[in-house]
Amino acid sequence: MKHRPTTATILTHNMCHNLEQVKKLSNHLPTWAVIKANAYGHTITAALEGFAKSEGIALLEIENAQLARSLGWEKKILMLEGAFFQSDYADYDELQCDFVIHQKEQMIWLSDYMKSLSSHKADMLVRRCEVWLKLNSGMNRLGFMPTEYLAAFDLLKNLGFRVHHLTHFANADVAGDADLSLTSCPKPRVQDQWKLFKETIQDLEGLISAANSAALLHHPYTHGDFTRPGIMLYGAAASGRFAEIASYGLKPTMRLQSKVIAIQNLQAGEHVGYGGRFIADQLSQIAVIACGYADGYPRHAPNGTPVWICANERMPAGRMAPIAGRVSMDMITIDITGLPVQVGDDVELWGEHLPIDDVASAAHTVGYELMCALSPRVKISITKE
Amino acid sequence: MKHRPTTATILTHNMCHNLEQVKKLSNHLPTWAVIKANAYGHTITAALEGFAKSEGIALLEIENAQLARSLGWEKKILMLEGAFFQSDYADYDELQCDFVIHQKEQMIWLSDYMKSLSSHKADMLVRRCEVWLKLNSGMNRLGFMPTEYLAAFDLLKNLGFRVHHLTHFANADVAGDADLSLTSCPKPRVQDQWKLFKETIQDLEGLISAANSAALLHHPYTHGDFTRPGIMLYGAAASGRFAEIASYGLKPTMRLQSKVIAIQNLQAGEHVGYGGRFIADQLSQIAVIACGYADGYPRHAPNGTPVWICANERMPAGRMAPIAGRVSMDMITIDITGLPVQVGDDVELWGEHLPIDDVASAAHTVGYELMCALSPRVKISITKE
Q1: Which of A49, A52, A112, A147 has the fewest CB neighbours in a 10 Å radius?
Q2: Contact B4 A84 (CB under 8 A)
Q3: Are the beta carbons of B283 and B306 closer than 8 angstroms?
Q4: What is the pTM of this model?
Q5: Assigned fold of B13-236
Q6: Residue B256's beta-bridge partner residues?
């Protein structure tokens, strides 16, 4: 029984390569390879292979932490949002995960959990699991206020934990210090967040993790002790603009492919698809591809969004063709006027020939969203070469 | 081990109810309940329960046709896009599926497949599987041109099949015949597609299936012999505008829920989230919800997109609150200034209190996309009440 011809290939050798680039850029600091959201759609299996040389993995789904352990991952795991329920601590304990504490209830749950343990078991816990205390340095999403931070730190130390320091930047994709001086720079600025973070933790022991992909690339003073790359490990840009990362030698890690399943011949003036959004301005040919928004292709993609027609004996170099008509649930239509395309031809929706960022930009989103949106009905295969 | 508190509940009683509404609107014609894309994210299991009274189900993933048979579905199945590969016909034969033929290669594959069968087995096939021949009546996506249609019909009849007629409308969500006379009506118009379809098949025997949800609601002359409702079975509008269907008594079939996992207090002038898109204009409170675009929530949702805070002892009537700041991969931030919200409170992202269409409209998309985008990390439960 064959699936629809809509398939994703995960390129673990490129994941390895991207991790190496991270290491080079950050003076070989330890990394938390971020593999939340099923490794941004790449699967945990592929991530453990691609990021085998990372010192740690970071995620937020306890079931995937369990999966990683069951697949043999013995190095560090960081639960990026910490506990959602008090019972999560028993799982962290068993799976030997470091975890974030970002708000008071999580400390109360932890305190209560420790009271339920024998002193021997409580000793085990604080040896097995380290705490990463999160500061809200201005993003106003997760983390303690600077005024609350020291008390939280002391409480966790008193429980016996090793406590480290973590924060997250809101605008690290605004590249370079020159940009940062612009009044048009969105707030809060990296340099302001960093200053507040450093001031808050200045007298406290513990390691620092602050640099996401964009900070890793553009703000080296934030690298700290443990970098936290996500999107760049998957060969895409935090900003969604491929140009931002083109010079860093990152490689694509996901190829989404499908096939041409039909071809239509149009007269000038004829329309294509829902809403009739594309109108042929001449005798035209339209190819229909078996991939739509229910596969994870962005419905917002406008006419002109590129699709790569793979090399074949009729087109030995391959060719780009533009989307023509609204993306449907299960299909995309592209303008192939004048090209020798046939039913059954392979196309690449993103991958080595077409950066995922280019598709994302066209659809006014970021590569993250496209990777994560890959649907379960897309058959995934993992390859090392 | 507990999952993140991001869960979807599938309301099969409302799926039943919506099917009943379809039946009432269409004079109790037989229906193909469209359950492609994992029943628009609702699961095949829920669909077979919710649409148990449908005469048939229609989809395009052969593995889900197999699943439906293995779950005990004995009535008709229609493969909406027909064969992607020649080998699909053996599966249709085994699973006893009707199938669409929309282009020539599919006929060649079918012809070749039948030649590989004994005459007894070929006889069995044409008794078990009926063909739905698809006309391209102007949408220019799938289907034969009117000039090719008769030859295709004859060829399939000569193979021994019962052959029926199918087409698809590009603009059926433009409501009412009044609208259709407007020059601003997108092309092709339902009435023009219908006329061409009827003219093409006028001398041919076979049943007719043409009406998708929007045609079912707005263009009753297209109902034919077998309606083909999709989105309305799931309580949403083809256009993405809930007002379009508000008067038809359709009910929501999916509730997406999560919890507040943090609360931040902001000074006037402070920013929230990536890009600092929300700026507090007064002392404000922001609640962080464990749901983001990697769960299937639309990243395009702007500030102001509604989120429902479920009733609790502090807010017995529940309350709507607006999104404040960009949707992140795993989190949404909402403005709860002045509301007695606490960490752990339940929220509904869409469902009975908040039509999925309202969220879709805010994000410039349609409910279809949101349902289909529901991610595997969202825990789904199915309920009958």
Answers
A1: A147
A2: yes
A3: no
A4: 0.96
A5: TIM Barrel (3.20.20)
A6: B8, B350
